[in-house]
Amino acid sequence: MARPNLDLIAALRRTARKIEKGSPYQWGHMGSCNCGNLAQELTRLTKAEIHAHALANGRGDWNEQLNDYCPTSGLPMDLLIGEMMEAGLDPDDLKQLERLSDVRILQRLPAEKRYLRHNFRDDVVLYISEWANMLEEQLLAPIKLPHFEWSEQTVLS
Asked: What CA–CA distance (Å, rounded) separates 37 from 35?
């Protein structure tokens, strides 16, 4: 599971917002699909650059790229995936993002919204937004705020 951190949460929120507002979205395009849109935010590469990296490896879709990922290969797509891993993701996160299939995220959605279409813009936005919410909750969970005692006397002073 993703390592919750502020940069990753912010990137997920930016990705969802961009897709929602009409950013190029095409599930069959390595640079503008679910993972491709998040990769744009995490790596600052364009959709065309991401797509070119994927084609240079000649390994197919994101799932196949992730199955063949080798952190020491030096191949452009492996470097891109490595950058995404450094941001706090793991290969399963990306595989599940591409198919909108992480059950931990889906279970957080209302029952009637749990059957998402992996190539439908609104479903992608919902999934990514809920993923960001979940990571934010995980990040904040260990933070314990002190309990402050107060009385009317303290307030009036």
From this structure: 5
